[in-house]
Amino acid sequence: MSTTTTTTAGGVKVVKPTVASHLNDYWGRVRGGDLGSIPAVAGLIVLALIFGVAREQFFSALNFANLFSQSAQVVFIAMGLVFVLLLGEIDLSAGFASGVCGAIMAILLTTHGMAWYVAIPAAMVTGIVIGFLLGFLVAKFGIPSFVVTLAAFLGFQGILLLLLGGGKNISISDEFVLNLANSNLPVGLSWGIALVGVIGYALVQLNNVRSRAARGLVTDPMGIVLMRIAALAIVVLVATAILTQERSINPVLNSVKGVPIVAPIIAVFLVLWTFVLGRTTYGRHVYAVGGNTEAARRAGIPVDRIRISVFVIGSFMASIGGILAVSRANSVDPNTGGSNILLYSVGAAVIGGTSLFGGKGKVINAVVGGAVIAVIDNGMGLMGLESGAKYIFTGIILLIAASVDAFARRRAAATGNR
Amino acid sequence: MSTTTTTTAGGVKVVKPTVASHLNDYWGRVRGGDLGSIPAVAGLIVLALIFGVAREQFFSALNFANLFSQSAQVVFIAMGLVFVLLLGEIDLSAGFASGVCGAIMAILLTTHGMAWYVAIPAAMVTGIVIGFLLGFLVAKFGIPSFVVTLAAFLGFQGILLLLLGGGKNISISDEFVLNLANSNLPVGLSWGIALVGVIGYALVQLNNVRSRAARGLVTDPMGIVLMRIAALAIVVLVATAILTQERSINPVLNSVKGVPIVAPIIAVFLVLWTFVLGRTTYGRHVYAVGGNTEAARRAGIPVDRIRISVFVIGSFMASIGGILAVSRANSVDPNTGGSNILLYSVGAAVIGGTSLFGGKGKVINAVVGGAVIAVIDNGMGLMGLESGAKYIFTGIILLIAASVDAFARRRAAATGNR
Amino acid sequence: ACGDNSDNAGSAGTGSTAAATGKVGVILPDTKSSARWATADLKYLKEAFAAAGVQADIQNAQGDKTAFQTIADGMISSGVKVLMIVNLDDGTGKAVLDKAKRAGIATIDYDRLTPNGGADYYVSFDNVKVGELQGQGLVDCLTEKKATKPVVAELNGSPTDNNATLFKQGYDSVLDPKYQGGEYVKGPDQSVPDWDNAQAGTIFEQMLTQDKNIKGVLAANDGLGNAAIAVLKKNKLNGQVPVTGQDATVQGLQNILNGDQCMTVYKAIKKEADAASELAIAIVKGQKPTTATGTIKDPKSGKDVPSVLLTPVTITKANVKDVVADGFVTKEELCTGEFAAKCTEAGI
Amino acid sequence: MAATPLLELNGIDKSFGPVQVLHDVGLSVYPGEVTALVGDNGAGKSTLVKCVSGIYTIDAGTITFEGNQVAIHSPRDASGLGIEVVYQDLALCDNLDIVQNMFLGRERKRGIVLDEPTMEQMAGDTLASLSVRTVKSLRQLVASLSGGQRQTVAIAKAVLWNSRVVILDEPTAALGVAQTAQVLELVRRLADNGLGVVLISHNMNDVFAVSDRIAALYLGRMAAQVKATEVSHAQVVELITSGRSGNIGLPPEKPADFNGDIVDITPGGDK
Amino acid sequence: MAATPLLELNGIDKSFGPVQVLHDVGLSVYPGEVTALVGDNGAGKSTLVKCVSGIYTIDAGTITFEGNQVAIHSPRDASGLGIEVVYQDLALCDNLDIVQNMFLGRERKRGIVLDEPTMEQMAGDTLASLSVRTVKSLRQLVASLSGGQRQTVAIAKAVLWNSRVVILDEPTAALGVAQTAQVLELVRRLADNGLGVVLISHNMNDVFAVSDRIAALYLGRMAAQVKATEVSHAQVVELITSGRSGNIGLPPEKPADFNGDIVDITPGGDK
Ligand SMILES: Nc1ncnc2c1ncn2[C@@H]1O[C@H](COP(=O)(O)OP(=O)(O)OP(=O)(O)O)[C@@H](O)[C@H]1O
Ligand SMILES: Nc1ncnc2c1ncn2[C@@H]1O[C@H](COP(=O)(O)OP(=O)(O)OP(=O)(O)O)[C@@H](O)[C@H]1O
Ligand SMILES: [Mg+2]
Ligand SMILES: [Mg+2]
């Protein structure tokens, strides 16, 4: 094989990889079970094919657009939960916390007639305060997070009932808030944002290579980097192309096209939290505490503060989930954030590959896992089954999606890479 | 201090403890944070006092008796979950599994007109089969138990709906089954069972001391053993005395006295599983796999089989919980085992001191934790608060009960015994 | 709660003239299936009992059967004289009623009859009738819109709620003949777990994706109706596709004023609550109730249960004002902000 | 002693994903002899042990036990053959006490009940024979033991059983002077009783003190397997650090051969 | 060198629940010197280290740093004072890679972003200086490293920083011949640079090779702290195993004194 050997400072011999060697290496890692989010994505594709075959509407532009707002609440709560799970903790109250935050926004908007730019930040601050309380009880009092958040799960249900005056639904009519989950970006802006995203990604990748090369450190071969950029560009641009098609049910009456507003919101948080986890000291410390709390403590990391912070992030993301849920439903009720929302959110993170034992997981997991859950719900909705059968099929399909992942990792275990 | 030193085979010097040294030692362990179930019991007492002060009826014989059947389903599911949690796994489907098993019993009793001695074993076998399936998927396919049991949680909900023909309730009228959760033992039998229990415990304890002493091994001093026996005797006999009082609201109409039938059922399973975990090879292996799976595998323990088995035990206990739930409700409906049953059951195990990370926990934890949950529900029921406030108070009180435990263990951490 | 267990030996069951003080226990079912339990019933019952100077312990089981029984146990052991329940299901209902009877407590089935439960009295609306009104309401709206062969989607209540089954029985009895006669086309028909509004949104969105020609929506209550309306709004179809509801909630009435919802069913809950509390107060005071003039046959035991039966009312834009006049919702709640003008328009 | 090896490995290859750790490794363990397995850090000693004990599945190669080719898929298979291993990472259950760990997987029973008194007594005897002086109680959790105490428990665990081959991966690393002497004596005693013993150690004094044969791994290849009496201290160190010494060892290193595997960084230049 | 100790411990007591592990222990660490801390398995060496580094809170006694009495409640306090520790149980995060572990808690940043290239370069340099030859990539997860490689990472992690006192708890236990030599050289170099170094080891050759003073713990008591030049190999071994040697060490053992703590079993009889 053609490898060029360079030597860097410190006498470390470096084998400079080529495109071929890199692909080879990648294949070796895949065979060895280091799969990243491939299996979950594969599961997603399998699911989409199943539903696509069963119902032709599944592959329509309209349905594709539906997926974004349908998955938003679960995806947001799951993104926040990734942080909590990374520490090996759990937040059972995230669902109702999102309900409480949504209700606060709705009440400020309607009963108190405030503007959205007051109500939305208020909801977010509520989320932060909730997270701080939860984290404080867990970190400083040492009560297991399962118990703290079970108590909070009950407590927030009560607060929600009290806020809504004992179970009333509150309808909202603020245009800005309603648009969040229900409207689309203009076609031009859709393309603009997509291009900015792709170009931004390309610049970051190229800059990375350049700065490492300048230090004489090993870099990924340029071919691979370009392939990665191309892959992202294709996915983003194809999705944009589909979403900028006319998809109105009744095109005569009104035109519906453009990327749903929630899509860039999800993307922004995905990038933000991925950056925080991967590129900042804080993120590094979150992984460390989750991987080995004692080692982190010995390294001088303020474990308690990290612990509190993940609950803050968790509840903050839940508050955004709540805002979007209220926007989508045009109203808030005592069950907003209840039912299966919590289990689905934790499930989304876990399906995507986050471990419940801490130390392992990425924010993208939550998005992919949330997509799996949303596709199942969406597809099952098209099938029109009766309730009993619907539950059963949902369970089975969830299992199928998860087992794609499990089989892949199974191989990994066999090669010793667990 | 007066310690006598004896020497056993193998040249190991032995310091023979006296009553004083034992108490001293115990106090040292308590100060050092090795607390067993003391904190949970303390939490329980605190709770009882709060409710007792707030509502005088709380301390009535009638209310005390109510506690048993009120807690039965949660306690049984929690006892089974202890095994699952000991392995660091989770079973989200336990609640609905109990519903499905209960429904099968009800259907056999009513639609098929079978006798209780067919229907009850059928329900239990269903539980075992369910557990086997779950365990198989987790152990052999390597799908995370959270995902498998989330799928099962959905699936069983569907099965329950189908079994009940889309949301109907099935009422049962079999006397035997109805008596299980709703009737009491005759006064004579109540005392008989209490005495047998106390004497049995005493014999086991004394025999233990005798057999160890015969080998020349260190034994607990006789004084301590006798104190332990006396403590159990007092608790059991006082409880029996209270429960054999007349507690009918309307004694003219009918007389209600005796130990509720569920109490000895809970006791039998508590003893059985405590024995299995503490005194058999199987139990030892469960702890080993939960503590360090890899070490257990290297010691030649069939890890997969152990993993399957805990799910079997979990679902089996859930089936008994389901039977008792159906008995108590005189009926089964699509929500039997739903609502908060699952979270309460896991919570019961965790409050009692079982770790979600595996390797740490006892069956008695589930019973004590279940009692905490039941007392909270029972006490809140007497307070007559409106829904919102009730949820909030339930959460707060749960937190108080758990923090007693947390504070105690906090001390433990400070002394390095974590 | 003080001093009321001093006379717990007195049998208040069948009109013996014991002490005039005594407590009434009321167990409401949940807050999810409808907002009425927490907002309306609770308020009216409290007011009625307070006015009569009778102590009342009113609790909500939050849809949890176990909690339902635990609350009942607590009420029985705290010595109530009358127990009024809205059962969550037949079995638990019966178990509680039996236990109460054994303790010599008088029982009232409120809103839902417990078959074979043997309650002393029954006060209710007819749930099948509610469904019939919904079906008829939708038919009227579709007729008004002159829809030809409209596709009708059905968004049913919780699959685990027996009342949802009764409602469905009612509206299907109206719609099925239309489907069979070819006047209407049967569209998607799905149940919403736990009456969950968010899930209702997804379910309806998928119905609409599957069949873009949906021209009418039978939603089992106002919350589900609102979820459907949110999706219709997103597709700018609101107001063109009639949606039904139930419970005459503020939200539902506002949707009606907006023209997004075609009708709701108003159950004069105050009347129901008053009727029930009247019964209970009489029993507590040791009088023989006189208001339970009707009877209904228990379908299982075949016995006649003394009953107070009330009739539900269809509410459309034309008679929204009746609900306000009844005091069920206040003008302030209903006519906030943008609705002020519409309220005036509707004569409120 | 006997000319046929008790345990024989041939052509063992093992990769973790893209990284090949063992290349065509062979090793023979004779009954009644102590075979020392030496090699630099990361040479692949522990990996080889784990391949033999069924923790890792081998990619290629054969394992022969008492002349029969065997397949070892799990630790159960290995202990079924009579192979006992003391792992470098000890593999103890922190939540169990000393006695429970020592009998893990092979508990003594009376009927269906664990026979705790017997186990406690046997454990005490074994530990005492290994010069353990400071364990406060046999019922102490392993989590609270000192490094050396943990290692002693792991060793005691492996020698409690009647086995044919005992493999000890750096058993004395954490032990004190007296305990080390005891363990080395034990190793010799085991071999003298006819068992095949494999001892991994970085301490050349210990290696020469007890071993009959020395096998040296270098960067995942077996550099040489020689009689202990035939080589000197310095020769073994040379084998370890450069893979060859005089005319024994690997052929002169061809860098391309090692670098052929796709690796990112291969530290290796002595400064 | 300087007559005032850099770090001085006095009268340290430490119990775990009913078990007292350290009794009235004193220790002085001088700048520019290597102090060897020796003792049998379970003597309490690691416990003492963890008391100094703030992992355990002490029950009684004082810690003096540069003449000022200090309170050390957490590892942060210790590293704030300039005390670095290589723990016997290493304390690495298995889910992080080598570079990430080495800079844990003290990451280099450029703005708010981690400066990965700089960290990778520094880590590579440090490892190379410790004779690490077989690490395949600096981005390898620590979980997949061999025992010796892990230990090297832990050592490298502690010496990256400018500290005043470095404590190494059995740092060479798992290391090969060459690596051990490098680490001993490093230890000497640190002391020569004016740092106070504490080295815990069971290997008497290593101890005598680098240390200036030797402190011997016996059953949780400080038996003696002497100049390395003033004692012989045999004397130190005697101090370790029996707590006294000639006229240095603890007064003759009074069994009742040790047994005064309530303990269940005190193995101790030599067979
Ligand atoms: N699971 C794994 N994935 C990737 N590489 C691994 C894995 N396990 C071990 N390695 C690599 O394999 C090589 C050999 O490791 P091994 O543990 O066998 O070394 P060793 O000879 O026992 O060293 P030591 O003397 O330090 O214990 C090392 O370079 C190590 O980094
Ligand atoms: N958390 C704990 N609880 C109870 N006992 C403990 C705990 N930690 C340590 N011990 C006991 O304290 C004693 C000293 O342990 P320590 O780890 O300090 O020994 P050490 O001198 O480092 O030994 P080694 O050379 O084996 O590493 C041992 O007997 C050990 O069993
Ligand atoms: Mg090794
Ligand atoms: Mg140590």
Automatic annotation (TrEMBL), chains A, B:
InterPro entries: ABC_transp_permease. GO terms for molecular function: transmembrane transporter activity. The chain crosses the membrane at residues 35-54, 75-108, 114-139, 146-165, 185-204, 225-244, 256-277, 308-329, 341-359, 366-385, 391-408. The keyword Cell membrane applies. The keyword Ubl conjugation does not apply. It is found in: Cell membrane. This is Xylose transport system permease protein XylH. It comes from Paractinoplanes rishiriensis.
TrEMBL record, chains D, E:
It comes from the Bacteria. SUPFAM superfamilies: P-loop containing nucleoside triphosphate hydrolases. Keywords: ATP-binding, Nucleotide-binding. GO terms for molecular function: ATP binding; ATP hydrolysis activity. InterPro entries: AAA+_ATPase, ABC_carbohydrate_import_ATPase, ABC_transporter-like_ATP-bd, P-loop_NTPase. Coiled coil: none annotated. Residues 7-244 form the ABC transporter domain. CDD domains: ABC_Carb_Monos_I (cd03216). The keyword Disulfide bond does not apply. It holds the Pfam family ABC_tran. This is Sugar ABC transporter ATP-binding protein.
